[in-house]
Amino acid sequence: MRFKAIETAYNRPVINVPGPGEKVADYYGSYTFNDDVMKTLLTPEAYLKVSNAIKSGSRIDREIADEVAAAMKAWATSKGATHYTHWFQPLTGGTAEKHDAFFDVTPSGKAIEKFKGSALVQQEPDASSFPSGGLRATFEARGYTGWDPSSPAFLMDNGAGGKTLCIPSVFISYTGEALDYKTPILRALHVLDKAATAVMYYFDRNVEKVTATLGPEQEYFLVDKALYYARPDLVMAGRTVFGHSPAKGQQLEDHYFGSIPPRVNAFMVDFEYEAWKLGIPVRTRHNEVAPGQFECAPTFEELNLAIDHNALLMDLMNKVAERHNYKVLFHEKPFAGINGSGKHNNWSMMTDTGVNLLAPSTKPKETLRFLTFLMNVVKAVHDHADLLRASIASAGNEYRLGANEAPPAIVSIFLGDELIRLLETLENRGEVQLEKGDNVFYKLGITRTPPLMRDNTDRNRTSPFAFTGNKFEYRAVGGSANSASPMIILNTIVANQLQEFKKDLEGRLEFGEKKELAIVDILKEYYRQSKSILFQGNGYSDNWVQEAAKRGLTNIASTPLALGKYIEPASIQVLEKMGVLSAREVHARYEIELENYIKKVQIESRVIGDLALNHVVSTAVKYQHQLAQTAKSLVELELIEEAQPLKELIKEISRRVFIIKQAVEAMTEARKKANNLEDIPKRAELYGSEVKDYFEKIRYEVDKLELLIDDEDWPLVKYREMLFVK
Q1: Could you tell me which of 178, 170, 186, 151 has the C-alpha nearest to residue 492?
Q2: What gap in Å lies between CA 15 and CA 269, rounded to an integer?
């Protein structure tokens, strides 16, 4: 099977992707029910009410919903749609949809086209099989999806099966609790808007709305489909549980930003064309550091829409990859010894007057505004670092965080030398100055090259939460994650901190302090309280781990322990206070994440046991028998000395097989022990320690056997065969 898969993969032709024959601007968003389409198809009154709902959250009545539904149906069916669905994001980590046809049957048996406002606004998917964390009993099946007008409906091309109108929606239980990612992210964005707008009152009274923006960079691996299906661990667990590192991996860094292989480029071109039709603003593509790894990145968008687009992008990539005989791997660490995949969440805040609140300025008033929002973000992350760490905890990210290509599990913030000097000056002298200085342009000594401008801060790729000039980049988010999880927390804690800042400022103003001086004093105090989380050095170094411990920063490597930070009193207090998640919803999500962790580690454990015994050990025993026969023949020919190396090899194989078999049996017993525990947190801890402890022990022995056993006999596709297929 291995060699057949290799032969298939290496003989794949590049699939020709014909260009669209038109400019991107001519078809961008053509599969979305966007603002231009609404203006064309809706009456002015309906268009105004939908626009107001998107901008300010005002309610859409059922009459308007009927008109929007009719317009949506006319638009979708004119483009070949036969079905519609509420497209939502349950707590499974993926997206969900239930397709209904655009028709009904009359009592006389005649089919009529039908799509009313009631169907647009609300659907009832079966909620019993979606994770609820105990919010619902399994026999209580009713749940509701509700239209989110702030994210445009879109058409999903199902290939030969036609198109489906997808309506982005929230998902709640019969009793009203959130069972998805979208509901709490909309709540968090609402409270951030209110809190940030209230603070902006002290700087610009014309600001009526503040919008969080997001640009999630997506890293991923491409593996040929034939090779993928020849690796049961990739199919079942999304990562390779065995595999010896090839002689050449990423150490030469020759893949990074290198020429994109033609077959991969054809996939990218095809994917981008489909993404642009859906209004997903993918602009960047390049090779990543690891062989077989790539990245795409979008233009910044309103945060809720950006999260929808990233979830849609991952689904779209999977579908397009099938056409090119690829499989996309989003797992955080699909291959040992080389870089894993993250989803860098670039986050900022924008006013309705067009001002980026995290963009520095040389004007004193604007600088004070910039520092106000910057320091409130820093203090929010400092005060709730463990909660932010919990938001990125997963079975996959546990392999990646702290590795040589990913930030450590320690939450820290990089601001850059310029901003640190500015804050030190603020603390020591109470002065606010931000000057670009004389070194704005590099002097290269090359006259024919235009001058290159330097940013006011460097980038630190080892920092989990880095300021990158006019935004923060949360680099620690895992490649397979839904960006909503960390963004729910980040927007909530920043909104909470901005509320606290407003209280502190109002308290000083009541005593007659001058506004600017009061703000400076508050920011100085925030800096003193939060400076321990600021780190400008190499986050990958062991010295930082020691230094962070001295500063009192937590280093939570274990996913179950990190998830436990969700249900600490301070975490629940801030989430409830801000109206983003109730205590019940928080506890439910904690339980869901723990169960997800348990199941993923359990699946990996079973895959390891199956492959180790049924693939590796059986192959090793057969090869050992061949060696024994050869050694016996040599002895019979009185070639005793020549037979000795074979005997040593037979002994080594026997020893490694013995260790593997013992470890698999012990791992299975540990799994049984964990499964017998009713307490889910304790079960998760056992899976993360006693069960998972055997993974590397077994892997080490298996990977050594890969080097000993004849290449012709080895049953699993090797790293060198998977990673370097172009």
Answers
A1: 186
A2: 11
In sign, the C-alpha dihedral spanning 697, 700, 706, 708 is: negative
Q: Where are the alpha helices (DSSP H) in 230-277?
A: 232-237, 262-277
Three-state DSSP class for residue 348: strand
What's 596-612 look like in SS3? HHHHHHHHHHHHHHHHH
Tell me, what's the pLDDT at 453?
Answer: 46
Which residue type occupies 323? R
* Identity at 172, one-letter amino acid code: I
Paired strand residues for 168? 87
Q: Return the amino acid letter for 14.
A: V
Apex CA 681: angle with CA 678 and CA 683, to 5°?
Answer: 55
Block residue for tokens 């503040």: 210
Quick one: tokens of 505? 């400022």
**Mean pLDDT over residues 15-19, rounded?**
81
SS3 state of residue 318: helix
In one letter, which amino acid is 532? S
Q: Do residues 590 and 566 touch, judged by C-beta distance below 8 A?
A: yes
Q: Looking up tokens 């006259």, which residue turns up?
A: 447
Beta strands in 259-361, from DSSP E residues, in sequence order: 282-287, 293-298, 301-302, 326-329, 343-351
- Delineate the domains of the chain, giving CATH numbers in brackets: 31-179 (3.10.20.70), 191-581 (3.30.590.10), 596-724 (1.20.120.1560)
Instruction: Of 246, 287, 283, give the one whose Cα is nearest residue 264.
Output: 287
CA distance 167 to 149: 9
User: How many angstroms separate the CA atoms of 9 and 343, rounded?
Assistant: 28
Cα–Cα distance for residue pair 46/52, rounded to 1 Å: 10
Rounded to whole angstroms, the Cα distance separating 327 from 504 reads: 53
pLDDT digits (tens, 9 = 90+) for 537-559: 888 888 898 999 999 999 999 99
Neighbours of 504 (CB within 10 A): 16
**Selection from 459, 479, 234 nearest residue 343 by Cα:** 479
Enumerate the H helices of 80-181 as residue ranges.
Answer: 117-121
What is the average per-residue pLDDT within 559-575?
97
**Mean pLDDT to the nearest integer, 67-85:** 94
What are the tens digits of pLDDT across the range 444-498? 444 454 554 456 566 667 889 999 989 999 999 999 999 999 999 999 999 999 9
Structure tokens at 467: 């300021």
